[in-house]
Amino acid sequence: MEDVIKSSDLDPNLIKEMSEAEETKTLLTCFECGMCTSSCPVSEQFLLNPHQMTRLAAFGASNQILNDDVLRFCLTCRTCQEYCPQNVDFIEFIKLARRLLIKQGIKYEETHDGILTIISEIQANRPFGFKIPSDLVPDGYQISKKGKIAYFFGCLPILNIVFDNLNINLLEIAQNGIKILNKVLEQPPVIIENIKCCGHDALWKGHFETFKKLAEHNVNEINKLGIETIITTCAECYRTLKLDYPKYIKNVNFNVIHLSELIADKIKNNQLKISETHNMTVTYHDPCRLGRHMNVYIPPREILDSMEEYGVNFNEMERSHENAPCCGVSCFLNCNDLSRALQVDRITEAKKVADLMVTTCPKCQIHYSCMLNDNKENESDEIEIGVSDLTNLIAKVMGLSNKEEKGKKKREVNDK
To answer: Whole-angstrom Cα distance, residue 94 to residue 100?
Structure first.
């Protein structure tokens, strides 16, 4: 890349685009201290590091920035903003820059042959959502057609199929979510039949029109049913519905909570029944979207702490809360040797304090499980530790996991 930037290379439209949003406007306040680059877990992969990109963006050097090799390696983990003295929102700029790149007709090289992008585009361009799997609702449990509270299970059924080779049951997260909500809510949760992907990956890859179609469809479906509260088990769905939908989509009239927030509140009010005792040591991995993006650190830990008297011992890793590292892959844009190194580093840290690493992001579970599966092929690299979703652990201690209530049939409740 050339060191000298000519005035003809400068694009006033880039500065204009940045100035239109409060988040991206913060790039113009950069002190050039370099803290973003020193804290970035993948700075050595960048053709331009975060500090350089911020400087060039402030000058409007779009030719240097709007480049696939420059933009696709950012994990959008938000670590840089945690250390920035000016609170520069670098990942919002990455989101904007990717959007401008897509407008130019440039697409990224993606992992898994881009199948997940293809699936989201198909969903966005058809009038109805995907068909709910017949085994989504476990026998003996109920869902409602009408009500004020809905469970948004996201793309778990799709991810379960795409990553079937990893031998992890991602649909089980949704099934256990339904079981738990049957026990803690006054009536079974609504499952929105015509729902689509939340659009998280489309938004962060720069496919804004795809995101907008998905989001507008979902908002319309939620509003048609009069839903007041959406519960998610996925960190990315939580961030997207709670933060991005109100920002980009009209008529968002519902509240969004993560299951961990609901369960932590039930525990505080002695409204959660734990019926099984176990003997295990667990640790918790903060997903970027639930942690640094949304500042939800306490509820998962309150849940895990409450399990101690039932034989579930919770130990923190050395790096936790805002200092927790990213799993190394964002939106399935890239997965390489550095991604694997980040995953091995984190799993090794987890193994020092626990036999099970719990998280609240299906993609974190996918990426760590993939790494562990790969390492099994080389016995010298094998690390013996489990990776699971917090939803599954909650169901387990409640005595719901892999157990069905006898004598009941699955049915829908038509609430009036």
So the answer is: 10
Q: Is the separation of the CB atoms in 292 and 307 below 8 Å?
A: no
Neighbours of 413 (CB within 10 A): 14
Contact 124, 202 (CB under 8 A): yes
Answer yes or no: are the C-beta atoms of 117 and 201 closer than 8 Å. yes
Domains of the chain: 7-103 (1.10.1060.10), 111-266+407-413 (no CATH), 269-397 (1.20.1050)
Each residue's pLDDT tens digit, 73-123: 899 999 999 999 999 999 999 999 999 999 988 877 788 888 999 999 999
Distances (CA, A) of 120 to 102, 215, 252: 16, 11, 21
Given this model, what pLDDT does residue 406 score?
38
Helix boundaries (H) for 269-413: 298-306, 337-351, 362-376, 390-397
Angstrom distance (rounded) from CA 401 to CA 135: 15
How does pLDDT run across 44-65, given as a tens digit for each residue? 777 778 888 888 888 888 888 8
Question: Do 53 and 24 contact (CB within 8 A), yes or no?
Answer: no
Residue 396 CA to residue 175 CA, distance in Å, equals 12
- pLDDT tens-digit profile of 253-292? 999 999 999 999 999 999 987 878 899 999 999 999 999 9
Q: What angle do CA 239, 181, 398 make, to 5 degrees?
A: 110
Cβ neighbours of residue 393 closer than 8 Å, sequence gap 6 or more: 282, 304, 307, 312, 356, 358
Total-model pTM: 0.93
CA distance 196 to 154: 7
Helix (H) / strand (E) element for 263: namely: helix 259-268
Per the CB < 8 A criterion, the answer to whether 318 and 348 are in contact is no
Beta pairing, strands 255-258 & 386-389: unpaired
- Residue 66 main-chain phi, psi, to 5 deg: -80, 75
* Pair of tokens at residue 70: 């420059």
